[in-house]
Amino acid sequence: MTTTKPVSSSVMTSSRRHFLKLSGALAAASALPFSVQAHDHSPSIGLQLYTLRDMMAISVPATLELVAAAGYNEVEFAGYYNHTPKQIRRLLSDNGLSAPATHIMLDDFNDGPQKVIDHALEVGHQYVVVPYLTEAQRGTTLKAYLELAEQLDRWGSTLRQAGLTLGYHNHDFEFERRDGQLPYDVLLNNTDSNNLTMEMDLYWMEKAGQDPLAYFKQHPGRFALWHVKDMDEAGEFADVGTGTIDFARIFAHAGQAGVKHRFVERDHTDDRLRTITQGAKALRALSQ
């Protein structure tokens, strides 16, 4: 799940121990094969920074340096960890990175989207993505999603007028039927394609038993963003390219999907450097 919840004190303590090894990780990254480390900007190789959220909580500059050394040229934010938009933009520039997208929780729109718009434009984002719904926000009936679709369409129109694109990131709960319909379909069918793009999380699609290609065919061009996240044989998270998801089949239909940016993500990992370097390598190969 991609959220911006505070990192617990126990996680922080563990993370600090891991982060003491960051200089070693950076050294290791600098010695990676050129095919992983290369920084040519075509194709775009993106990372969702939620993957490294505990490291981000300790040092945003060092984490972005590590991400760049691992072979990425794009990132998607899931929180700014007390850094201003100006500071974030400078750190991105210093590391040869761009940040085409960010995750912004639904509650952040409650006071109106203008603050979200101003922040996104200052950092240099193009996409602002709603990453997750709390149980309260999901409600218990289809009405909650019909109302959400209306909100997203309205906010998306406002963002579009400012030169931004609103997105929605799925998990698996959007595929639990309500009144005979799938909430995910409700969001797609009750919003203007110009006002809302979908950030398809390929792991959660698989978890929900859904076929991405069917959605690409039904809604061509609607999926500008992907989360490239793998699944092991037990149905848990795996490093990209080491699991069971047939990414080659999905990537073969990238044009029909309308994808512009692909972000490696793993919600939980016990080896961050392995996860991000393997992810960059696999995504580069898939994107050729």
Automatic annotation (TrEMBL):
InterPro entries noted in UniProt: IolE/XylAMocC-like, TAT_signal, TAT_signal_bac_arc, Xyl_isomerase-like_sf, Xyl_isomerase-like_TIM-brl
Molecular function via GO: isomerase activity
Entry superkingdom: Bacteria
Signal peptide feature range: 1-38
Key words of the record: Isomerase, Signal
Segments forming domain Xylose isomerase-like TIM barrel: 64-284
NCBIfam families assigned: TAT_signal_seq
PANTHER family: HYDROXYPYRUVATE ISOMERASE, INOSOSE DEHYDRATASE
Record protein name field: Sugar phosphate isomerase
Organism annotation: Alteromonas halophila
